[in-house]
Amino acid sequence: MEKKNNSRIKFKLDEQKKYIEKELEKVLAKISAPKTLKDVMLYSVLNGGKRIRPFIIAEVSSMFSVNRSIYKYPALAAEMAHSFSLIYDDLPCMDDDDLRRGKPSVHIKFNEANALLGGSSLLIYAYNMLTNRRFLIEDKKKLLLLENLSNAIGHSGMLAGQFLDLEAENPNLKLTLKKLNEIQTKKTALLIAFCCYAGG
Question: How far is 176 from 182, CA to CA, in rounded Å?
Fold first, then answer.
């Protein structure tokens, strides 16, 4: 029974991944930007990944009979915002990682300035997804999504988590389990921001 359930989940995850990657390619192809900036955005978003966030958004949406044509917008926004966070996480001033998913990190392939600009562009484009005219939900729900996204990313969310993560590298500071939980909660808060629109 467990094996059957795992196979079903894997099938749904693969199916959802194919769908969201197709949609990501579609919206990113329409971007009007200088070539290198567009290349940075495409490279970072389409450079692999499990697409867990869109999958969970899709599953929550299905519980409330929300159509694919609606939930795709927060799903796309989640992946763009997530890609922004990975670009910044890899920067020399952060974790200084040369590889991401077995390929050169964005700042290695395109340089640090282009990585910063591409990451910022993706984050702003995530907001653009949520304000899209074809995202047909009530305005009050859109505003709630925008507020939640801001909180999940900003000074009390993901960026705060990154700050605390860097701070924890100081050997003079004692990292408690409570502090570790706070870092992980803040750094993974993004998904919660997108599950509010479906049911209420």
Answer: 10
**Residues 6 or more apart whose Cβ sits within 8 Å of residue 164:** 179, 182, 183, 186
Nearest to 30 by CA among 76, 87, 78, 85: 76
What is the rounded distance in angstroms from the CA atom of residue 79 to the CA atom of residue 84? 9
Q: Looking at the chain, how many residues does it have? A: 200
Distance CA 73, CA 26 (A): 12
pLDDT, tens digit, 9 for 90 and up, residues 23-64: 999 999 999 999 999 999 999 999 888 898 889 898 888 888
Identity of residue 108: I
d(CA 104, CA 40): 12
47 phi, psi to nearest 5 deg: -95, 30
Q: Are 71 and 58 in contact (CB under 8 A)?
A: yes
151, 138, 140: which is closest to 191 by C-alpha?
A: 151
Give the pLDDT score at 199: 46
The two structure tokens encoding residue 183: 């870092």
Q: Which backbone phi and psi does 197 adopt, to 5 degrees?
A: -80, -25
